[in-house]
Amino acid sequence: MNYPRIAIVGATGVVGQMFLTVLEERKIPFSSLVLFASKNSAGQTIQYQGKTYTILELNETNVTAHPVDFALFSAGGDVSKIYAPLFVKIGAKVIDNSSYFRMHPDYPLVVPEVNPEDLQGHLSIIANPNCSTVQAVVALKPLHERYTLKRIVISTYQAVSGAGSLGIHDLETRADQDHLKKFPYPIHQNLIPLIDVFLDNGYTKEEMKMVHEMRKILHLPNLAITATAVRVPVLNAHSESINVTFEQPFLLEDVRHILATSPGVTLYDDPSSFMYPMPSLVSGQDQVYVGRLRVDESLPNTLNMFVVGDNIRKGSATNAVQILERLLTKLS
Ligand SMILES: NC(=O)c1ccc[n+]([C@@H]2O[C@H](COP(=O)([O-])OP(=O)(O)OC[C@H]3O[C@@H](n4cnc5c(N)ncnc54)[C@H](OP(=O)(O)O)[C@@H]3O)[C@@H](O)[C@H]2O)c1
Fold it and tell me: Residue 83: helix, strand or coil by DSSP?
């Protein structure tokens, strides 16, 4: 195959910019690169790998005039709904960061370390999971293979970068109630136990996304999962407290060995030397860090762990580019 033609949709956003960084870091070859954003950014230029690229407005005329082989989307569900099928129509494969296609039975939802087998067959749109889902399943899948998951209780501490450039604005400017661009309340000196919107069952959409997406990726449609998602005043990298019950008993030393040798995971766990994962440590890295491993003494076969991942990298851009790498290998 010749070098692919690649498009980024949402190229001016937090995730879109990280796509550019990760494509360069991982030396993904391309014969052309087309950058799309909204009409507000059209005409802006970006310097990248020694060349100047002009941002194009995302519209049917521009998409049709610039055919590509792969399109990396990160411009929200409404944009994906309309434009992903258009890219497919002109012959591209779409890797989509929005939630729009994630639970659609026709489209795979993939974390390459966890369910690469779902990239088999005819692929048009591949969904990239929610950032909180990605880091959880990277840590849980290798333990599931050995001990079989029974129940997961997950509580998140999610960085403002997960809410895009407007979320970063609200923290960095310490916006008060009158100057907020993203959150319903100031995030500085605060926590907000609402991510996305409330649903009829009292959970938030973010919490239910985690439940449904983890079940789909792990191929465990009936797995018991309950989630609480909280926005915290941290710039980047999501943290998760995960309480997990297995069908089989485990030894903590075996759990450590499994995690230390699993792809995508860095075991970072030594209380005697104050080694535990934190956003400040993990931000900027592609590995998912796991620490604070403890036996839950209140329930049989139950483990506590603390999992931290860079939501813009492994939670979004890196995972999408890893999917692209797999597709390129398949096609070569
Ligand atoms: N941040 C995360 O941790 C994360 C993780 C997983 C998934 N995601 C998903 O990735 C997507 C983008 O997130 P983000 O954090 O990068 O947000 P962001 O910083 O707000 O960027 C949004 C991007 O979408 C573009 N856009 C908005 N409306 C558009 C339209 N009508 N046509 C074309 N482009 C349009 C924006 O272009 P302009 O600059 O021209 O407005 C910008 O490039 C969302 O679907 C989000 O759910 C984000």
Answer: helix
